[in-house]
Amino acid sequence: MTPRLAIIAAFMAVLLGGAAVSPEPPGYRMEQYRAPTPAGLTGATVVNTEQAHALWSDRRAAFIDVLARPPRPQGLPASTIWHPKPRSDIPGSIWLPDTGYGALAPVMETYFRRGLAQASAGDPGRALVFYCLKNCWMSWNAAKRAMTLGYTHVVWYRDGTDGWTAHGFPSEARQPLPRPSASE
């Protein structure tokens, strides 16, 4: 679909009272990660906020946040104190920032694999819930990537922390899982 047709389709969806959605691409989304997402992900279970909350409440799944973490601004003098923006997410989640891009550097693929192994306790059949924000392709990409790595119970929570907090569910400050060095 051309960008012009995508805009027209999104506009028509809004006019007709539906939420704008994008068609499911055959591969990973490679750009414009903050845009309407597909309604589904082939091979994964898609959940709404109430369903995600039920999985969380029953502790039936591991929750994985893949929202990107902005890097230290380029050109900022080394002596300048800089603090990254804090992240609040679903309690008990693992935060694997920058793993939802369409293409990952080898060190980030290693980081993603290790994070999934930790979240699943080594069980590829354990339910893994991927999320970031509403209209964010990073969680879609990460969920799709998990399936290609052999995880069989992949859950995609489209509305992410936006939907979670809008329902008044708890959140907590989160630090990312430490990243491996480039030499690992």
Task: Give the topology.
Layout: H1 3-15, E1 45-47, H2 49-57, E2 62-65, E3 87-89, E4 94-95, H3 106-120, E5 128-131, H4 137-148, E6 154-157, H5 160-166, E7 172-174
Parallel strand pairs: 1-6, 2-4, 2-5, 5-6
Antiparallel strand pairs: 3-7
Give the assembly state of these chains.
single chain
Q: What structural class do helix, strand and pairing data support?
A: alpha/beta
Count the beta strands: 7
The largest beta-sheet arranges its strands as 1-6-5-2-4
Radius of gyration: 17 Å
Q: Which spans of ≥5 residues are poorly predicted at pLDDT below 50?
A: 5-18
Q: Which strand-content bin applies to the residues?
A: 5-15%
Secondary structure tally, helices:
5
Distance between the termini: 40 Å
**Total domains, how many?**
1
CATH fold-level topology: Oxidized Rhodanese, domain 1
Assign the CATH architecture: 3-Layer(aba) Sandwich
